[in-house]
Structures are given as C-alpha cells and as structure tokens.
C-alpha cells in the first residue's frame, strides 16, 4: 500500500501562490489568448455540456394509476418521455380541452 502524501511537502514545479502571484493573475478569458492564441483559448472557454433548451421540461409530481405506470414502464427506459409524448398527442388531438 502506498504512503499518504505529505500535505506539508512543497513542490518545486507547483509552489504555493504568493500575494504577488495573485496580483498578477487575471481572468482566464484575458490570459489564455495571450498564452495559447485566440482560437485555442476560445475553444477552451466555450461552455460544456448540452445546450439549454429554449423551453426546458418542468419537474413535477403527478399521481397516475398503477396500470398507466406499469404500461409505460414495461417498455423499458424512456417511459417518462413516452408519457410526455402521449400527453402531447392528446393535446394535438384535443386543442380546445383545458
């Protein structure tokens, strides 16, 4: 088993920052282009993950009959999406129902 790292060990390649280091620091959006160039910095700074939907789905609690839940769950993953699709279809077929 390896030994636990010594938290007091000072690394030569990555020393603890001084007040001067913090004073010289700047936002990544300003510093990265000077180090890596505009295009690489732009790629590094772009948001990660799935883009936000214009109209994101809402998380709600709803009580459904056991038969409805079992029917949709029996087809496997995506059962909540299938319920959403069925409800959207109902809305399309019954536009005046409120």
Query: What order do the helices and strands follow?
Result: HHHHH
Mean pLDDT rating: 90
Percent of residues in beta strands?
Answer: under 5%
Helix content: 40-55%
Distance linking N and C termini: 66 Å
Number of DSSP strands?
A: 0
Radius of gyration: 27 Å
Low-confidence stretches: none
What is the number of helices?
5
Tell me the structural class: mainly alpha
* Sheet having the most strands: none
- Label the overall shape: elongated
Any overview of this molecule?
The chain has 5 helices and no strands. With 98 residues, the protein is mainly alpha-helical. The model has no long low-confidence stretch (mean pLDDT 90). The termini are far apart. Among the domains are: 27 residues, no CATH class; 35 residues. Helix 2 crosses helix 3. Helices cover 47% and strands 0% of the residues. The longest helix is centred in the last third of the chain and has 15 residues.
Short description:
With 98 residues, this protein is an all-alpha fold.
Summary keywords:
mainly alpha; 98 residues
Write the layout of secondary structure elements.
Elements (H helix, E strand, L loop, with lengths): L18 H6 L3 H9 L1 H8 L20 H8 L5 H15 L5
């Amino acid at each position: 088993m390896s030994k636990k790292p010594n938290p007091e060990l000072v690394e030569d390649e990555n020393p603890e920052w001084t007040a001067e280091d913090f004073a010289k620091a700047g936002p990544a959006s300003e510093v990265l282009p000077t180090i890596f160039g505009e295009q690489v910095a732009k790629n590094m700074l772009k948001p990660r993950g799935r883009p936000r939907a214009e109209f994101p789905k809402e998380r709600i609690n709803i009580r459904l009959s056991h038969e409805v839940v079992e029917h949709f769950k029996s087809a496997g993953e995506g059962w909540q999406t299938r319920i959403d699709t069925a409800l959207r279809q109902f809305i399309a077929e019954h536009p005046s129902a409120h």
